[in-house]
Amino acid sequence: MVTQTPASEQLPVAAPAAVRRAARELLSTERLGLGLVLGIQGAATVAGLVGPLVLGYLVDHLSAHRSSAAQVGAAMAVFLAALLLQSWLTRSARRRAAALGQGVLARLREGLISGVLTLPLAVVERAGTGDLLTRATNDVELLTTAVEQAVPDMAIATVSALLTMVAMVVVAPPLALILVPAIPPLYLVNRWYLRRATAVYLARQAALARVNSRIQESTSAGSTIEALGLGAWRVERTEDDIRRSLAADWEALRMRLVLFPTSEAVYVIPLFAALLVGGLLHAQGVVTLGQVTTTALYAQQLVNPVDLVLQWLASLQIGAASLARILGVREVPQPDLTGAEPRTAELEARRVHFEYRPDREVLRGVDLAPPRGRRLAVIGPSGAGKSTLALLLAGVFTPTSGTVEVGGVEASRMPPERLRREVALVTQEQHVFAATLRDNLLIGDAAASDDRLWATLGEVDADRWARRLPHGLDSQLGSGEAALDPAQSQQVALARLLLADPHTLILDEATSLLDPGAARHLERSLAAVLEGRTVVAVAHRLETARQADLVAVVEDGRITELGSHRQLLRSGGTYASLWRAWADSS
Ligand code: ATP
User: Fold this and answer.
1) 133-186: per-residue pLDDT in tens?
2) Tens digit of pLDDT for each residue in 76-98?
3) Are 118 and 80 contacting, i.e. CB atoms less than 8 angstroms apart?
């Protein structure tokens, strides 16, 4: 099956109100921990305020020649003790904050994974895996920075900045006014930046998602691209995407290039003002030299927390943009699932129409009721809609109009794990999970005993190689572990199917990717699985059609012929001419 994924259809992005609500909910569960972090940081800041006070005291007393060596020694000891206490408390606050961030992140990641796992397959097909991948990697990474560093740092820095400002007011009220001139430029440049940041970062992530989508598509459809000679065209399109992504990156950088230098320049204002205004006020006897020293040091101490807050504001916005994309995954409308139980083991499609894109119908009024326990082969020219029909019969897609029902229950509205016990789709892409052979098989039936697993492996002809695995059912399969060849992977998948025991199987050219030897070998395994079940097989080889009980010919989205091999030969339609052409050539 060659599935084209429309590249433009991305997954939803949560609205700002939903992001705020989610952030509040996440933080509210950690209220106690956050309170403790802020308390410890408050204490650290108070300890940090002692140093400049001591220095101010020393300046006043030394300039008035009122200090003894013992007093200076004591003052230095207090200074050092306060410094040590401050670094110990800061370290403790940061450790707690990081642990807090990890907890929040873990919950976010779990939320994302459960959202991804419940995504309707049709949505993943349409959106492409690149967007999902970007959300699960880049967005989680950006959010990790925001949660692990930005939130705690900002909380800590805000407490420090506020306490330092209070201290400035307490030490020398008139001198505290030196902060005022720095506020308007800082406010203006940050407002300018923050108003643009979310849109720019969202655009950057979307551009990156497009690059990932394109690369992922090119990788998975590598052989098709090579066969059709589309390499240069794909490279060109990928380069276009990369150019767009770079332009978005550059826009983000351009904004930072305005924000950071402006902020740096503004930070000098309070220190400069403290010395200038302090000097003037001291000359008039309004403040002491010690007060000027302490205030100047506090002004300098303020730079760090204010800078942190402003820097992290942007990062927090990026985090919010990423959070919006992560939460968006959970906003994908879920199919309205039903708990209804199928009354019979009949699968039936009635007046089914389907379109991937508006106004381009791929199926146009298909009626099909595969006879129970029999094999139905679906044949037809490439692009006729065979694979799409298979996906609809397997409940992966919902018809645009019409119904596909299993025992009277709409297939696409049945919970996937329930539906798979009725109807299962077997495609050529079978996945072996990085887990033990046992876990790979238990996906079919979680309650199966080891004896049953071995018997099932025997049925699909897989027990001989499975017994040679180093730890039998406990052998690890998948990346870096026991590597299975494509035929063995198919056998594991077929064994899973046998364990799940659905009454109907939808086969989409299950053996066509394998080399002929492996395919022949697998046919035996497949025969065991097909035995006694209703089978709908999308067939490329007419030999498969000849062996089937019934053949449906699909042309341009419609079933144009339906009957047994003999009936269709007699009727002299498309199937008959296809068969004659095939028979003449072989
Ligand atoms: P083949 O034998 O080549 O696999 P098919 O008969 O199985 O062909 P489908 O794969 O069902 O045909 O495709 C039917 C039509 O739907 C084709 O025009 C195809 O381009 C289009 N199509 C398939 N998948 C998608 C998709 N995900 N998005 C948009 N169009 C699609």
Assistant:
1) 878 887 888 887 787 778 777 887 888 889 889 988 998 888 888 888 888 898
2) 899 899 999 989 998 998 888 88
3) no
Enter the pTM of the model: 0.64
Beta carbons of 406 and 423 less than 8 angstroms apart: yes
Whose CA is closest to atom 20 on ligand 1? 383
Distance CA 323, CA 151 (A): 13
- CATH topology for 347-585 is Rossmann fold (3.40.50)
Q: Which of 123, 129, 361, 362 to mutate for ligand 1's pocket (most ligand atoms within 8 Å of CB)? A: 362
pLDDT digits (tens, 9 = 90+) for 495-505: 998 898 999 99
Residue type present at position 325: R
Number of the ligand 1 atom closest to the C-alpha atom of 1: 4
CATH class of 11-330: mainly alpha
What are the backbone dihedrals phi and psi of residue 562, each rounded to the nearest 5 degrees, phi first?
-150, 120
Q: Return the best residue to mutate from 224, 354, 356 for the ligand 1 pocket (most ligand atoms within 8 A of CB).
A: 356
Domain spans of the chain, in order of start: 11-330, 347-585
Distance CA 32, CA 38 (A): 10
Quick one: pLDDT at residue 79? 87
Reading the block at residue 81, the tokens are: 């003790």
d(CA 38, CA 49): 16
Question: How far from each other are the two terminal CA atoms of the chain, in whole angstroms?
Answer: 25
Q: For 24-43, give the DSSP string.
A: HHHHHTTHHHHHHHHHHHHH
Closest C-alpha among 341, 346, 423, 345 to residue 390: 423
382 ligand 1 Cβ < 6 A: yes
Mutual angle of helices 16-28 and 69-117, in 10-degree steps: 120
